[in-house]
Design brief:
single chain; mainly alpha; two-stranded antiparallel ribbon; 8 helices
Length: about 210
């Protein structure tokens, strides 16, 4: 969310498909925690997602998503919409609470309310951007969560339009595409989790393409 939000806080890149990106991030986090799994059914809406593991999750947002998955087996793409709807506001509120963004409210013509979320502390985002650049430009092996972020940004189509920009050359496009397909390196993450995360990214990309037609 920090990467998608312009530094002046006035706009969000790929805002129209943000529910796919954030829903995909939540599902991927659950996959990395080994709390969901996907089957090999494929199909138009992607594989089916089922709960795995036991015990409470460390975050209420993840617990809510897990409970939704446990209630009813769904395929990835419609599940992304269910989980991602209105999720951006929850995430932005959390970033404000952490001191990474600040909320500024103004009135246009003293009637219409306008809200911006400019950066309050850019250090966290700067470190993330530096890590992404090393992975895309220098071929550094990604950790699982950074790989997931790159895959979801690539799937959303937002990566070349981020401000400030990330490198976008034939080399980095190829690298980002490989990561989006689940090629994270042999030691990055278990094969089963890699496949699950790649399926989520693929379903996100398919959903975004359909929405943008």
């Amino acid at each position: 969310m920090l990467l998608l939000m312009d530094d002046d806080g006035a706009s969000i890149q790929s805002a129209g498909t943000l529910y796919y990106t954030l829903g995909g991030a939540v599902l991927t986090e659950l996959a990395l925690l080994n709390r969901i799994q996907t089957d090999d059914s494929g199909g138009l809406n992607g594989p089916r997602v089922t709960p795995a593991g036991e015990g409470p999750l460390p975050d209420p947002l993840l617990q809510s998503a897990y409970d939704t998955i446990a209630e009813k087996t769904q395929r990835v793409q419609p599940l992304l919409v269910t989980l991602g709807a209105d999720l951006w506001q929850v995430v932005v509120d959390r970033l404000v609470a952490r001191g990474l963004l600040r909320r500024e409210e103004t009135r246009v013509l003293r009637v219409f309310r306008s809200t911006r979320w400019p950066a309050a502390d850019g250090e966290h985002e700067a470190r993330l951007r530096a890590r992404i650049r090393r992975i895309l430009e220098a071929g550094e092996a990604p950790d699982p969560r950074t790989a997931a972020i790159i895959g979801l940004l690539f799937a959303s189509g937002a990566m070349p339009s981020l401000r400030p920009p990330l490198p976008w050359t034939s080399t980095t496009v190829t690298r980002a595409s490989e990561i989006a397909c689940g090629h994270w390196g042999p030691e990055a993450v278990a094969i089963a989790v890699t496949r699950t995360a790649a399926a989520i990214v693929a379903a996100s990309a398919a959903g975004m393409a359909t929405t943008n037609r």
